[in-house]
Automatic annotation (TrEMBL):
GO molecular function, one term: oxidoreductase activity
Xref: SUPFAM superfamilies: FAD/NAD(P)-binding domain (SSF51905)
Species of the source: Pseudogemmobacter lacusdianii
Keywords annotated in UniProt: Oxidoreductase
Keyword Oxidoreductase in annotation: yes
Domain of life: Bacteria
Domain FAD dependent oxidoreductase: 34-389
EC number: 1.-.-.-
InterPro entries: FAD-dep_OxRdtase, FAD/NAD-bd_sf
UniProt protein name: FAD-binding oxidoreductase
Pfam families documented for this protein: DAO (PF01266)
Length: 442
């Protein structure tokens, strides 16, 4: 599914409002390290931090600048949940004992992010006021009750909320209730990424930006990661490039399917709008099949995201109309003029399991892809998984099984978009049967 080609430097609110990236010169010589990490997003940076804190010498290569990929383009939600499947399905797909360990890490990921933010003094607009998922039709409550039971069984403190509390938390009169996860949070994702980079540097990590990993070859008992003007010679190599993988290891970029998403930021809205729309400063997912996810920025802008579908995401004028109509439908009490001053695009590395996949590429070389739309919490917690591998924790004790590299199945090229359309159609039909008024552009 194609999307307009824009540089995030030109169209992203995050890039317009973040402080400069830390000074990380390009690599222009051969250097030695214990571990070479390829990719300067959340996964690579948290892995580097965890290793450096244990005395490991780490060199990290980033093709562009810190946060250029998904870590600087996402919508800024830190939802310590799985993106699509319920927990019992995650257990079946990942298999035990790995699934239980993965669930523990993912459901604790917001606390892990909060720890990094506090430890390194990262000013990233962190707000841990909860995640709310709306129930926009009566029949949705039952599935949210099951969600509550399954997440609370692993230590969360979620609850189903009634319509009155939903209005109190979010301001929308459209729901029949919802689901509240108090550990949910939101932040400025690019400030977080760049703060992690500064934290990694403070721990002794050598970060080289503007440096592509062009090759990875065996060199005696080590690995040599070649770049345009230099190389890193290391005992172990980790590829943590996610959706922005380019050929550095043969066929790694074929291990997932790209799914584009767009994010938009409004003009600065009034204090009245802030009081009546998401007054508790939560993250909000409207809960419909064709989801609309939104939150406040620190300077009174609504940041919202949706998937591309039909002309939405390709026709920018139409896209802005959809975004405005959705927001006004959810919050009819807001009388501000809504403009979308920023609109930018990102890419998700989708796996059919919708959980990360850890690939053993060769002895001493692994790759991790497939965050599948839960970038902030998942990328944050994966540093612990990859650092344990690099420190020699037995494979059977890791939180993900190590798998042979394989190409994403062909049907994945169409399945995510098909599933979105199916979910949208089912939700619209169920809403009509329940006598619920559909939002514009449903």
């Amino acid at each position: 599914m194609s999307k307009p080609k824009f540089s995030p430097f030109e169209t992203s609110y995050w890039f317009a409002s973040a402080p400069p990236a830390p000074n990380c010169p390009a690599l222009d010589q051969e250097v030695q390290a214990d571990v070479c990490i390829v990719g300067g997003g959340y996964t690579g940076l948290t892995t580097a931090i965890e290793l450096a804190r244990q005395g490991v010498k780490v060199a990290l290569l980033e093709r562009e600048q810190i946060g250029y990929g998904g870590s600087g383009r996402n919508a800024g939600h830190c939802s310590p949940t799985f993106s699509y499947y319920p927990l019992d399905k995650v257990r079946a797909l990942v298999g035990q004992p790995y699934a239980e360990r993965l669930i523990k890490r993912q459901t604790g990921a917001a606390e892990q992010a909060a720890d990094y933010i506090a430890r390194y003094g990262i000013d990233c607009e962190w707000q841990q006021n909860g995640l709310v998922i709306g129930a926009m039709r009566p029949g949705h409550i039952a599935s949210l009750q099951h969600k509550t039971e399954s997440y609370n069984a692993v230590g969360a403190k979620t609850r189903v909320i009634e319509r009155d509390e939903m209005v109190e938390l979010t301001g929308t009169p459209r729901s029949f209730g919802g689901w509240y996860h108090p550990q949910g949070a939101h932040l400025h994702p690019l400030k977080y990424a760049r703060g992690l980079a500064r934290g990694a540097i403070s721990e002794g990590v050598s970060i080289y930006a503007g440096t592509s990993a062009l090759s990875c070859d065996k060199l005696g008992g080590k690995w040599k990661v070649g770049t345009e003007k230099g190389a890193v010679v290391a005992d172990k190599v980790i590829f943590a490039t996610g959706a922005y993988t380019v050929p550095g290891w043969p066929k790694l970029e074929q291990s997932f399917q790209i799914m584009p998403v767009y994010v938009a930021a409004t003009n600065q809205l009034s204090d009245h709008a802030r009081k009546v729309m998401l007054p508790a400063n939560t993250s909000m997912l409207d809960g419909r099949g064709d989801f609309y996810c939104y939150k406040w920025s620190a300077d009174n802008r609504i940041i919202a995201s949706m998937f591309l579908m039909g002309p939405r995401g390709r026709d920018l004028d139409y896209t802005r109309k959809v975004m405005t109509a959705k927001l006004k439908w959810l919050h009819p009490q807001v009388k501000d003029e809504i403009r979308w001053d920023y609109l930018w695009f990102g890419e998700l590395d989708m796996q059919y399991k919708t959980t990360p996949r850890l690939y053993g590429l060769a002895p001493g070389v692994v790759a991790l892809t497939g965050l599948s739309g839960r970038g902030v919490p998942t990328g944050t917690m994966l540093g612990g998984v990859l650092s344990e591998w690099a420190m020699g924790v037995p494979e059977t004790d890791l939180s993900l099984p190590i798998e042979p590299l394989h190409k994403a199945p062909y049907w994945m090229k169409h399945a995510p978009n098909y599933k979105l359309r199916e979910m949208r159609a089912i939700d619209n039909l169920s809403s009509r049967i329940g006598g619920v008024t559909l939002p514009p552009f449903a």
